[in-house]
């Protein structure tokens, strides 16, 4: 991708995956931590894409941009609801996971949840003639630091669940909890979340990756079927459906 425009890897820097420096397949906790970094980086690319393009949106494109912003915000909110209500409590019920070890990460949600809610409210209630890109950036500035800290801190907490011995029933329970939450997340609107998330995944990141792993042909279904309904909103994504980085349409030059 040859472009002088600001991209979605800033202003909030992306997180390094544990697999870049460690062997991750050996323990479910390591696998989960690695998968979560990919998910968190998708969130960061989305927030950076919103932030970097917000001031430059033409009036004719505001409605689509507000929908993109609302979709990203709703997805992140849903992710953290699953963590609080299901994932974290279920992890802590597994023998060998320290009781209360994920409480700090859950409490961090409260530091940025109001900011997320305000951004969601703005993006769903603002009429295009009243749109302000500066206002969007101000709202993001109000919670981005706390969100970023949470996304980074959570990885170490998940990795530390390797206190559960590998190759045991308890280790299997950890993986089962994660897969169940993953399945629950997959129930979100297929016309919104799959097209958006695939466009937030960079398959070239750290030398190449296959996140998220999907059955063969699934990306084609997303691209040619699910993405059609809100196609205008996906123009603001930093990658195409196949995970290839592309220029942010309305970002400023660096």
From TrEMBL:
Pfam families: Hemerythrin (PF01814)
Entries under InterPro entries matching the protein: Dimeric_xanthone_biosynth (IPR053206), Hemerythrin-like (IPR012312)
Superkingdom, taxonomy of origin: Eukaryota
The protein's name in its UniProt record: Hemerythrin-like domain-containing protein
Residues of the Hemerythrin-like domain: 34-157
Signal sequence annotation: none
Organism: Byssothecium circinans
